[in-house]
């Protein structure tokens, strides 16, 4: 159906856009998983480090060692907070990509539905034309029989 060509081209374009959104979503999901895993690893390392050094300080607590520990813990806490922000950003990116993907999926579904509707309408029109042609042929045939009957009676 030539009338459907523009719609088929539109469908191809919307599917392509949807596929790009899907790829973006997969990248965002991977980035989110990586950021979350890194945040968890940093937290676990910080807990382990605090526990290990806490035990050591309970046995011996040289002031230089305590200052070194505090400086490292401060930097480690900053790293944990920075990674937490990165993880939050990754979650927002994932949610945004999910919304874009859903939007593209809806566009593809809408175009497909429109194509289905146009095909159905074309089929109905073709069926009506066929019915009309059949009715006209039947009518002509009936008139022809009537004319032949009159002609044979005279």
Describe this structure in a few short sentences:
This protein has 154 residues and is mainly α. Helices cover 95% and strands 0% of the residues. The chain contains two helices and no strands.
What does this structure look like?
There is one protein chain. With 154 residues, the chain is mainly α. The chain has a domain at 2-108: Helix Hairpins, CATH 1.10.287. The chain has two helices and no strands. The radius of gyration is 37 Å and the shape is rod-shaped. It starts with a helix and ends with a helix.
N-to-C span: 52 Å
CATH 2nd-level architecture of the domain at 2-108: Orthogonal Bundle
Approximately how much helix is present in the residues?
Answer: over 70%
Mean pLDDT, rounded to whole units? 92
Kindly state the number of beta strands.
0
Low-confidence stretches: none
Largest sheet: none
Strand composition percent? under 5%
User: If you consult CATH, what is the topology of the domain at 2-108?
Assistant: Helix Hairpins
């Amino acid at each position: 159906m030539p009338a459907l060509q523009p719609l088929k081209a539109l469908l191809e374009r919307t599917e392509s856009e949807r596929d790009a959104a899907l790829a973006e979503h997969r990248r965002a999901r991977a980035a989110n998983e990586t950021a979350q895993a890194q945040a968890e690893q940093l937290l676990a390392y910080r807990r382990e480090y605090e526990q290990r050094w806490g035990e050591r300080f309970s046995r011996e607590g040289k002031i230089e060692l305590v200052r070194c520990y505090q400086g490292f813990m401060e930097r480690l806490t900053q790293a944990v907070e920075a990674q937490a922000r990165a993880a939050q950003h990754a979650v927002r990116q994932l949610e945004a990509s999910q919304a874009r993907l859903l939007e593209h999926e809806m566009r593809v579904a809408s175009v497909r539905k429109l194509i289905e509707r146009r095909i159905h309408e074309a089929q109905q029109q073709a069926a009506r034309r066929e019915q009309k042609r059949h009715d006209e042929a039947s009518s002509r045939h009936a008139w022809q029989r009537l004319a032949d009957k009159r002609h044979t009676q005279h």
